[in-house]
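Design job #97: recover the sequence.
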């Protein structure tokens, strides 16, 4: 348990002894299916990824075990990083588009009231 003021670990990397860097389990704390399925989808779009899946250990725990296996000796951290960055880009695009439409709607409301 984290002591007050101490930064809590968000991501852990678990690798079996003797396993290569292309086969890793990541543990994401304080997350659920919302992030798990989105990140899994983005990672699976990468052609260098052979397998990507996640499990929620128990419904009362808010952590995800995320397994990534890559082809060609590529470290599993690379597709994870790319998948998170790609998901961030998609979310930013959705946010920008939504905000632009809200602003356009508000401007339309203001001009119709004049």
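Job complete. Output follows.
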């Amino acid at each position: 348990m984290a002591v007050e003021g101490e930064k809590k670990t968000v991501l852990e990397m678990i690798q079996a002894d003797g396993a290569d860097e292309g086969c890793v389990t990541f543990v994401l704390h304080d997350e659920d299916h919302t992030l798990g399925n989105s990140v899994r989808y983005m990672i699976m779009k990468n052609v260098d990824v052979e397998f990507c899946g996640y499990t929620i250990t128990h419904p009362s725990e808010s952590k995800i075990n995320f397994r990534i296996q890559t082809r060609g000796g590529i470290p599993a951290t690379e597709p994870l990083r790319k998948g998170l960055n790609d998901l961030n880009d998609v979310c930013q695009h959705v946010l920008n588009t939504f905000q632009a439409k809200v602003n356009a709607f508000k401007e339309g409301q203001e001009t119709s009231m004049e």
